[in-house]
Design a protein that fits this description.
globular, six-stranded mixed β-sheet, about 550 residues, alpha/beta
Amino acid sequence: MKRRTLKGLLLLVFTGAAWVDAAAQSASGSNPNYLVYTLLAVVALLILGMLIQVSDNLLGIKARQIGADKDGQNYSVYPRLNEIFDSPKPEYTAGAPIISLKKGFDILLEGEAARKRVSAHVKTYAVQPPNYKGISPIPKMEVEVGDEVKAGDPLFHDKTNPQVKFVAPVSGEVIAVNRAAKRAIAEVIILADKEQQYRTLTPPDSTNCSLEELQNFLMDSGGWALLRQRPFDVIPAPGDVPRDIFISTFDTAPLAPDLNYVVEGQGLAFQKGLDVLARLTNGKVRLGLDARGDKAPSAVFTQATGVEKTWFRGKHPAGNVGVQIHHTQPIRSGDKVWVVGVQEVISLGALFVEERYNAARVVALTGAELKETGYVHTVLGANIGDLLEGRVSGDNVRIVSGDVLTGAKKDGAGFLNAFDDQVTVLEEGDDYEMFGWLAPSYRRPTVSRTYLSNLLFPKEPFQANTNTHGEQRAFVMTGQYEDVLPMDVLPQHLCKAILAGDIERMEGLGILEMSEEDIALCEFACTSKQPLQNILRDGLEMMQEQM
């Protein structure tokens, strides 16, 4: 590249000199010719531009060689467009670089959780093996119906990795072990004691113990099950050491909980969790911070130590940890990184601070069909019917564990999924609409902004329902996905490669960087009504079998 650039520069100099010489000869014996000076100026500008371009290329090469191009900073001599036209940086970032994502879409729904604590009397809790991808569908049970357990006692373990324990979130009696198709274990249900009892733990000194000793403690205490590995979004294998560990401190999904409220009073456990995670990787613990608002995030996040902080702003899915990984240190072939949720970090820290397995969770109760919204303090795997008792205003509703894009449909007897911190209740859309979108109708969220109401009231929240406004149809190329996914991935081509079973093409198109939550917004925007999240999971499982 350097030789080609130098040859081009010399050719430009000699060509310019020839032009100037020819112009000078034509103007000899006459008055000064302005053409000569014009050509001289043009040649000088071209030479200057070429020198700047060479410098820019060399800076880019050097930045890639040392890996500095992954930190989100601009190492070019040319300013980026967002550096020229982007809104000013918030003062609380103290001038730190901000990764501004231009693609995405915010789905504004009614029923945001009020910033207040609400109470709920939950009687039963469940640990659900299907929540933990990558383990055997029929794990080895360590308890039976009728057994009494303490919070932190092992309930079952994965047959492939028996040292990884999945533990009880509360103390009480095991009242059911429910099974699904092919006798796969779906739920282990515990009737909670009124007075909670905890298994006493003896954690090692996290600052001085060996990596093996630390991992063994986490696997035995239930802490290992709080971790997830990318690619594939599975529980890490024992002995694995991730390249980096990523934590997103904000959520941009529809009606998502405010994590700044969630971590109030949990600063000690959160910091201890970060310290423990730092011992588990040879790389960095990377914290994604929210730069969207006028107010600074919680001091628990901004003042965290021993971590690499990166500021993000933009529409959903800017808060997705997968998007943040892509824009800081992308996953390459052979890489393994771990992701951890904010409340999982707190539980990890509690193992060492409180010397017990504390599965407490702050869950946002959201949705337009609730009489009262807010945040309930409960425990992992809480019964959803108990959480919502007396709060649902309608009869024809859908209850979702999680957000409306990635959550799972539940009934009143269902339980909160392991990694969810939100319950959403919205109207069931099971009615038929004459002429569909062609007829004038109520306001509804749409990426295409087809409806006049989206132009007149762009920031007004919607009272949405679950109607998909159409059925699955031909999988046509529309370019819709790329407009809402801020990643250098071609999601539509990727999904077609998955459907075709083309493993090599799937990897080349970036499947190792993707998880279901990253493609969920594409599914919302899809004209073809394709189940993209299911397709992606099938592809990830195919890839995992090949590796």
